[in-house]
Amino acid sequence: MSARTGILYLVSGPSGSGKTTLCRRLSDEGEASYAISCTTRPPRPGETDGLDYFFLSVDAFKDKIANGDFLEYAEVHGNFYGTLVSEVINKLEQGTDVVLDIDVQGAAQVRASNHPIIKNSLVDIFIMPPSEEELLKRLSGRGTDSQEVIATRMKNSLEEMEHWPKYSFRIVSGTHEEDYTYFKALLHGERLRISRHHDTPA
What is the DSSP secondary structure assignment for residue 44, as one 8-state letter? Predict the structure, then answer.
């Protein structure tokens, strides 16, 4: 009988790439457990604490940094974001696949982790918008941000996109269904990888 360690499905991509939608759908369909991030930014309309993010004060976030509670954390757009170790390690040890939606700074910290289970379970994917024009269209389409905010996000997104060669896989975004088909197929392929199964020889 084989015992499988969970897969840490780390997903990055600029705002507007659709990465969060992909991660949420994978979780909603029961394919993986979504690792909820902590943030110091205020909730957007419709967001719920403990479901979309753990919303923390700056002081509370810094206390968790000091306690070593984060697998990774970063300051993005003037706010702190981070992933709790407790949201990831226990699930992986139990054989549960975990999907992690984080930026390129956080991804670099996870790759640098010396924790054996993180090193052995990590699969990193970059979701790439098909073009700059489409990215701008998606960022503008939200209808909730000012032109100044959109311009800042566009600049940051283009900088993030330069990091895609550091990832093991890249999905160039098309339609939502096309993206999800590739996204889920990649996870299923990783589950079949021999090195993820630890059989004891007879």
Answer: P
